[in-house]
Specification:
It contains 15 helices and eight strands. It has 377 residues and is α/β, with parallel strands linked by helices. The strands form two sheets. It has a four-stranded parallel beta sheet with strand order 2-1-3-4, sandwiched between helices. The two termini are 29 Å apart.
């Protein structure tokens, strides 16, 4: 276990200190950094330009600077990102890609142009009808526009070869994380929910070329290890939502006898569960990957597959239940919940619905709910 703990602690340190980690990555690689907002961004394009993609998923930041631009009833990720931007935390970034998946993100695009113009906001609009030929044609053009705009801002360029290499690297990254979460499910209880989370999250703050070997080595160690007797018999669960945060939430999972064997989190498995098919050029592969991505509140899905996908994941991983972590004030997730809940009921899959935000002062009410869920199981 010492080797596993050392590898986890290295990745955990990267995840828990994003500012330092990104600054070190910029120094080590000599690359300029580009911020990438939730939910999905064309990181491969950023990488193909010789730039460093940096995930921007909020944090524990508190303050009232963001209230000048955002209403009180918007999600904590957007508040934290804005607070950190106004505080200068993102000044190391040469540009920021902002998506438009929800109403708040659409406001962020315009607000940040005024609030932090030096961050060079690059908006991107993903097509909702992403499976149609017209949607794919539009999206390819949109990806090229973003690539050209970033190239002009950062004084860089890309080639067909550099884009293809970037897509290949990101598919290797996705396969590596698929293998990692599978190994964790095979050894339930070996690592804690919080450790699992930080291993995945660390990938947002360093070069993927440096990150992938670290996770591969950890996965090998996990497969070779045995679960300690005091970590056996925990309740295996699947967690769904936008993020598995704050950290204290995952600590409560562990304290209440739960281990995470699978997830449907936007910050985690939704980022790597779909691999780009080998068709056309690099842009075509990126377009097709998003067309194949289903089960997400932010991507139009006529068949509403998400609930069934989570049920199937629970069966595959041996989970005894699901915890749906609703990020407070996230409308798309709230709209999905009744449909997902209906699938859980039909499958007779036990579930718990909780509501959290990143800057929670107390988790005691949530703790009580999780404890009760554990006792019922």
């Amino acid at each position: 276990m010492n080797g596993i703990n050392d590898k986890i602690n290295e990745l955990k340190a990267i995840s828990q200190n994003p500012g330092q980690s990104v600054a070190q990555a910029i120094k080590d690689t000599g690359k300029k950094a580009v911020g990438c907002f939730p939910i999905y961004t064309p990181d491969e394009v950023v990488y193909a330009l010789g730039l460093l993609p940096v995930g921007m998923w909020g944090g524990p930041s508190k303050g009232n600077k963001s209230s000048k631009y955002l209403q009180t009833f918007c999600c904590s990720i957007m508040k934290a990102n804005t607070e950190q931007a106004l505080g200068g935390d993102y000044d190391m970034l040469s540009a920021v890609i902002v998506t438009s998946f929800c109403d708040t993100l659409k406001c962020i695009i315009e607000d940040w142009k005024i609030a932090v113009p030096h961050l060079n906001i690059v908006p991107i609009v993903y097509p909702q009808n992403r499976k149609s030929n017209s949607g794919k044609t539009y999206f390819k053009a949109e990806l090229k526009r973003v690539a050209d705009e970033l190239a002009e801002i950062t004084d860089t360029s890309y080639t067909d070869e550099s884009l293809a290499a970037a897509v290949d690297l990101y598919d290797e990254y996705r396969r590596t994380l698929q293998d990692f979460v599978k190994s964790v499910a095979e050894k339930p209880g070996l690592i804690t929910p919080l450790e699992r989370h930080h291993v995945v999250k660390a990938g947002y703050f360093i070069d993927k070329k440096d990150y992938v070997p670290k996770v591969k080595a950890l996965t090998e160690d996990i497969r070779a290890a045995e679960v300690p007797s005091d970590r056996q018999g925990l309740n295996p669960i699947v967690i769904s939502g936008i993020i598995g945060e704050p950290d204290g939430l995952l600590e409560v999972f562990d304290e209440c006898g739960f281990t995470v064997v699978g997830d449907d989190l936007a910050q985690e498995s939704r980022q790597f569960r779909t691999i780009a098919p080998n068709v056309g050029d690099g842009f075509d592969r990126m377009v097709e990957r998003i067309a194949m991505q289903d089960g997400c509140a932010f991507l139009y899905d006529e068949e509403k597959r998400r609930g069934r996908m989570i049920v199937d994941l629970a069966k595959e991983t041996g989970a005894v239940g699901v915890i749906f972590n609703q990020l407070k004030f996230c409308d798309p997730e709230e709209f999905d919940w009744p449909l997902v809940k209906k699938e859980f009921n039909a499958a007779e899959l036990p579930y718990l619905y909780i509501e959290t935000e990143q800057q929670m002062d107390s988790l005691e009410q949530v703790r009580t709910s999780i404890q009760t869920f554990g006792e019922l199981l």
